[in-house]
UniProtKB/TrEMBL annotation:
Organism: Pseudarthrobacter phenanthrenivorans (Arthrobacter phenanthrenivorans)
BP GO annotations: phosphorelay signal transduction system
UniProt name for this protein: histidine kinase
GO molecular function terms noted in the UniProt entry: ATP binding; protein histidine kinase activity
PANTHER family assigned to the protein according to its UniProt record, in alphabetical order: ETHYLENE RESPONSE SENSOR PROTEIN, TWO-COMPONENT SYSTEM SENSOR PROTEIN
Family matches, as SMART domains: HATPase_c (SM00387)
Length: 488
């Protein structure tokens, strides 16, 4: 969830790390809302509105108390005195009267978020009291856990900057399974989903009253593969994530130490069965490796074809046949270069600047080894999909070769390659310009060779673009290719 901070930028007097701490709070308070069975709102003083709502989260363990979004709005008059009191007292304040919202009886608490002795914001909890049944042990335990976390917020002990923010998927949530430990790592309570998760790992006994570290150690078959953070997570000593695997089941664990002013008095451990998630991730890794291997083999096969064409050209007597085979060899080598780039990455896109940087100079040199041809490149192509990279590389190769052979006509000269990536009316567009300072366009129409026929076909059919030939200012020829990248 994002935090609505724009209205407070000019009013907030935050110290180093204060704004980041509030962002960390909002990034993790879904857990508290689920444990408290309550909506949470974050309030900050505003000169005109009294207090303004910066964020709001609804619980996934029960129904919400607020169906409409009030983020960015001012505080209600009946709630302001309670938030004021919590802001100045720096302690949790509970409303003495039941608050009614749309015929729903609510218990409201105001919790100041205090860091380095300064109140940064106030969190209000809104819990429905309309249910007439007695709360279960699970509900009582969850609510106590929520209170402990919010109490830590008044001491600046939660959220913790040491909590990992890694990109690996499968972070446990309250509904996936919760285990509460005491200071010695003994299980005080385990939710039904938490018990089921460890049963799938192979533990058939009740978790309560046992050391979670000993239970976990007994389930490990190959201790050489154990995550080194696991002991600190299952004892609740550090706010980290870890993972355990046994009998083909993968269990993701997250620890949240519970502390007061003096010591750590317990911990929460969230657990989630991520076996299916890890299996799918492994399938994706396998497919990525297979795709890379396919591109690598295609590149090798194309290089073999190019080598065979080179050998065949050496046996040709006719100069025209030799030249035809050499041109075919260059085209095959260009395609192989794209597949070589694809085989080195996980994505089906190509850093075209890196690819064309190697090919551009090589195309000019191979077209006429005896000429002194300078090449100059400017602009940025960026990342291009592989289905565009291959035909575009072939087109540039043909046009550079044509510029050297027919534009410069055996003389020394320069060939330019310019890329211009910009926003157009229909989305992002790419304009590629190949220019030379040679003899320029012929005065009379001429028959296009195979190379230019290939260029026109690739530009119109494969790239879906347009191509134009123009006289270059200062002499020579300028070829412009325009193509749309929208939806690519």
């Amino acid at each position: 969830m994002a935090i609505f901070t724009d209205p407070i930028r000019e009013h907030a007097d935050f110290g180093p790390g204060d704004a980041e701490w509030l962002h960390l709070l909002v990034g993790d308070w879904q857990m508290v809302a689920d444990l408290a069975f309550a909506d949470l709102a974050l309030w900050f003083p505003h000169p005109e509105l009294g207090y303004i709502a910066l964020a709001h989260v609804r619980p996934s363990t029960t129904h919400t108390a607020f169906h409409s979004d009030f983020v960015g709005e001012g505080i209600r008059s009946d709630l302001k005195p309670l938030v004021d009191k919590a802001w100045h007292s720096k302690s949790i304040e509970r409303s003495s009267e039941t608050n009614w919202n749309s015929e729903m009886a609510l218990r409201v608490e105001a919790v100041p978020m205090v860091r380095n002795g300064r109140t940064l914001a106030v969190v209000t909890t809104h819990m429905d009291l309309s249910s007439s049944r007695m709360p279960s042990r699970l509900e009582l335990t969850y609510r106590q856990c929520a209170y402990d976390l919010l109490r830590m917020g008044t001491l600046g002990l939660w959220p913790d900057f040491a909590s990992p923010t890694g990109s690996r998927r499968g972070a446990p949530r309250v509904g996936d399974g919760l285990i509460r430990l005491d200071a010695d790592g003994i299980v005080q309570y385990a939710s039904p989903n938490g018990v089921s998760a460890f049963r799938r790992l192979g533990d058939g006994e009740s978790l309560e009253g046992r050391s979670l570290a000993e239970v976990t150690a007994g389930l490990l078959k190959d201790r050489r593969m154990v995550d080194e953070t696991l002991p600190l997570v299952v004892t609740g000593r550090m706010p980290w994530r870890s993972e355990i695997e046994s009998r083909g089941v993968s269990l993701s664990l997250r620890a949240i130490p519970l502390r007061d002013e003096q010591q750590r008095f317990g911990a929460l451990v969230l657990c989630r069965d991520v076996s299916e998630l890890r299996r799918r991730e492994m399938e994706l890794v396998t497919k990525d490796a297979t795709i890379r291997e396919i591109h690598h083999r295609v590149k090798n096969n194309l290089q073999t074809v190019a080598a065979l064409l080179r050998m065949q050209s050496r046996r040709m007597v006719s100069d025209e046949a030799k030249q035809g085979l050499e041109q075919a060899m260059r085209r095959v080598a260009t395609i192989a270069l794209v597949h070589e780039t694809l085989s080195q990455g996980l994505t089906q896109s190509v850093d075209f600047d890196e690819l064309i940087g190697r090919q551009f100079r090589l195309s000019a040199e191979v077209a006429s080894p005896s000429q002194q041809v300078r090449t100059e490149r400017s602009g940025t192509f960026g990342e291009l999909p592989s289905d565009l990279a291959t035909p575009l590389a072939l087109v540039i190769n043909e046009l550079v070769t044509n510029a050297v052979e027919h534009g410069l006509e055996g003389r020394a000269g320069t060939v330019w390659l310019l890329a211009d990536r910009s926003e157009g009316e229909d989305g992002e567009e790419l304009t590629v310009t190949i220019a030379d300072d040679g003899v320029g366009l012929p005065q009379t129409p001429h028959v296009e060779g195979l190379g230019l026929q290939i260029v026109r076909t690739l530009v119109t059919s494969e790239l879906g673009g347009t191509i134009t030939w123009e006289r270059r200012d200062g002499g020579g020829t300028e070829v412009k290719i325009r193509l749309s990248l929208a939806g690519k």
